[in-house]
């Protein structure tokens, strides 16, 4: 992949995460005038379209690729963006993949919280510090709620959308730490270098989101 400054100014490189965000992201970008299409069975990770290269990444890597300028822009959840600590522009709230990041315990659990399991250690550290709770944080990768069911942790910090996972596992939300939705993120230098491509895309995405 060529560095941002040496790619043609009229070309856009976009970073999208595999997983639940991809399909809605592609649909939204298509409505905004970028007709992208990723064949379901494809194992390719880079897709070329007229004037656009699409990179398929893990969620956590989208802010990294955008901040370091390998991608000009990307789409990622606010949760993952905050956790990354990356200094990228965030010009549009795309209003899908809505969920909240919450402190979760077993129903009725009492007693001090010594250990918290989560995929979001930075956000959790900031939250616990703000609460004056000196708990240990255990970084996990998935099935986070199991940590509190099995005694690995006294609480977890994880995403809640429908609440189905909480109900199925006898868990309850004790506090909402943040509300998340998918965001368009843009590299700071690209915003100037590729202004002629990015400005209309941002404007169009804002309109499409308003239309609902
Ligand atoms: N249950 C949910 N409902 C709605 N949005 C969600 C839900 N879970 C996660 N999200 C949002 O969608 C984003 C992507 O979720 P996804 O499940 O694809 O990631 P993941 O598979 O957990 O991540 P990875 O495997 O890359 O660590 C999350 O960062 C969050 O913003
Ligand atoms: O409130 P709900 O609608 O039940 O959604 C919340 C669940 O969705 C996510 O998990 P995901 O399905 O991504 O699985 P994971 O454990 O691999 O992260 C999240 O981590 C919760 O477990």
TrEMBL record:
Q: In which pathway does it act?
A: Amino-acid biosynthesis; L-histidine biosynthesis; L-histidine from 5-phospho-alpha-D-ribose 1-diphosphate: step 1/9
Question: Residues in domain ATP phosphoribosyltransferase catalytic?
Answer: 58-206
Biological process (GO) annotations held by this record are:
L-histidine biosynthetic process
Q: What SUPFAM superfamilies does the record point to?
A: Periplasmic binding protein-like II
Q: Tell what the record comments on domains.
A: Lacks the C-terminal regulatory region which is replaced by HisZ.
In terms of HAMAP family, this protein maps to: HisG_Short
Protein name per Swiss-Prot or TrEMBL: ATP phosphoribosyltransferase
Taxonomic source organism: Deinococcus ficus
């Amino acid at each position: 992949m060529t560095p941002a400054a040496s790619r043609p100014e009229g070309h856009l490189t976009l970073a999208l995460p595999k997983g639940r965000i991809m399909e809605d992201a592609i649909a939204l970008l298509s409505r905004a005038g970028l007709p992208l299409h990723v064949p379901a069975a494809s194992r390719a990770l880079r897709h070329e379209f007229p004037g656009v290269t699409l990179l398929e990444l893990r969620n956590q890597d989208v802010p990294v690729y955008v901040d370091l300028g390998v991608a000009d822009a990307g789409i990622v959840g606010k949760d993952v963006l905050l956790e990354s600590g990356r200094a990228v522009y965030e010009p549009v709230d795309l209003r899908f993949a809505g969920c909240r990041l919450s402190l979760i315990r077993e129903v009725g659990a009492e007693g001090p919280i010594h250990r918290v399991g989560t995929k979001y250690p930075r956000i959790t550290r900031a939250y616990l510090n703000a609460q004056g709770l000196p708990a240990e944080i255990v970084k996990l990768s998935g099935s986070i709620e199991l940590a509190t069911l099995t005694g690995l942790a006294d609480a977890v910090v994880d995403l809640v959308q429908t609440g189905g996972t909480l109900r199925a596992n006898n868990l309850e939300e004790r506090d909402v730490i943040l509300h998340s939705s998918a965001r368009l993120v843009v590299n700071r230098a690209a915003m100037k270098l590729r202004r002629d491509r990015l400005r209309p895309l941002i404007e169009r995405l804002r309109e499409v989101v308003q239309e609902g």
